[in-house]
Amino acid sequence: MGCILKGGGGLYNRLTVGAVVLAAGQGSRLGYLPKSLIEVGNIPLIRRQLIALSGAGIDQVVVVLGHYGDQIRPVIEEFPITIVDLPEESWSSQSNSVREGVNALHGKLDAVLVVPSDMPLLGGQDYIDLIGAFKTRGEGISMVRPVVCQQPGNPVVFDYSIVDLSNELNDPMCRSWWEQHPRECLSWHTDNSRYIVDLDTAEDVAEVQKRLGKRLRMPSNKEAPSGVA
């Protein structure tokens, strides 16, 4: 049987998938630093994500930058991706990050993945498995999210056809969309805890270091707000 994502004899037709990688945050709970530049095995998280997405056969990737954009851009600009620089007034809005990232996708797409850049354990197979769940989601389902032991995880994947960039109150970039459209949403239950591991706090970093048996290399916080160490 051929690869489920790349066609060639599989059970389902191949999907054309775009990914929006969110890397605009300030990292305030982790001491004001660019979380996507935390290194695992000497590789920044953002590069690990891009390599994994490529390995999963994702067709287009957009990376959204905001805070620390000048530090992150040199690490990723060699990849065949689109980079979106948010205006400063939008840096604090995740929905704006997603909206601008989706707007930068082009051509005919079937689905969009929204990928936080601070998830250190996700690999290509995790994306393949999630897209597989989306492909078999059933009629009327527009959005799929992994759920591990009742805890919602990431990434989220949604049908590109539901995107309406002209209607901010009713689009999948809003967090409330999931609650507003329960019949169109599927909680994909899995025991894969990699979908719920991110790096928001020092405790998260310590837990991942323990799990991996290696230290994570932290980037500098040279752009921290005045008065923040």
What does this 3D model show about the protein?
This protein is of the alpha/beta class and 229 residues long. It has a single domain, classed as Spore Coat Polysaccharide Biosynthesis Protein SpsA, Chain A. The protein contains 6 helices and 10 strands. The strands form 2 sheets. Strands 1, 4, 5, 6, 7, 8, 9 and 10 form an 8-stranded mixed β-sheet that branches. Strands 2-3 form a two-stranded antiparallel ribbon. The longest helix has 12 residues. The radius of gyration is 17 Å and the shape is globular. The protein starts with 16 loop residues before the first strand and ends in a 17-residue tail after the last helix. The N terminus and C terminus are likely disordered.
CATH fold assignment: Spore Coat Polysaccharide Biosynthesis Protein SpsA, Chain A
CATH arch. level architecture? Alpha-Beta Complex
CATH superfamily: Spore Coat Polysaccharide Biosynthesis Protein SpsA, Chain A
Q: What's the helix count? A: 6
What is the straight-line distance between the termini? 55 Å
The number of distinct structural domains comes to 1
Describe the main β-sheet briefly.
8 strands, mixed
Low-confidence spans: 1-11, 225-229
* Average pLDDT for all residues: 87
Derived structural class: alpha/beta
Helix content: 10-25%
Instruction: Give the SSE order as H and E letters.
Output: EEEHEHEHEHEEEHEH
Strand proportion: 15-25%
Q: Could you tell me the radius of gyration in angstroms?
A: 17 Å
CATH class bucket: Alpha Beta
Could you give the count of β-strands? 10
Apparent shape? globular
